[in-house]
Amino acid sequence: MMMSVDTDLIRVLADPLRLRIVTLLAQETLCTTHLVEETGARQTNLSNHLRVLREAGVVDTEPCGRYTYYKLRPDVIASLASQFAELAESARTAAENKRACP
User: Fold this and answer.
1) 76 vs 72: CA distance, rounded Å
2) What is the pTM of this model?
3) Could you tell me how far CA 65 lies from the centroid of its own chain?
């Protein structure tokens, strides 16, 4: 039986800035200051997006003095990738299945 794709997580990652943040965090652990420099977003806007990512379980935080570092949780991304891989496999086999019209 095919599992459903996590639509809540897709909504979280559908925002272009959040996807950019995730892409950057896939390369290295960064603090808010680094993310502001990389994205050009305002700090308050960026903080709101990071909160959404944190609440969705996509990123973890690591305090370091007066800064907060963010790191991507690869297990969450891997789980979503697995769900899409299963969906793609289902589509491959479904190409042979054709429901007759009434």
Assistant:
1) 9
2) 0.84
3) 27
What is d(CA 1, CA 11) in angstroms, rounded to the nearest whole number? 24
DSSP 25-92: HTT--EEHHHHHHHH---HHHHHHHHHHHHHTTSEEEEEETTEEEEEE-HHHHHHHHHHHHHHHHHHH
Strands 30-31, 59-64: pairing kind: unpaired
Structure tokens at 25: 């965090």
The total number of residues shown for the chain amounts to: 102
pLDDT digit string, tens, across residues 49-82: 999 999 999 999 999 999 999 999 999 999 999 9
Q: Which long-range contacts (CB under 8 A, 24 or more apart) does 9-15 make?
A: 9/56, 9/58, 9/76, 9/80, 10/80, 12/52, 12/53, 12/56, 12/58, 13/58, 13/80, 15/49, 15/52
Separation of alpha carbons 45 and 32, rounded Å: 11
CB atoms within 10 A of CB 28: 10
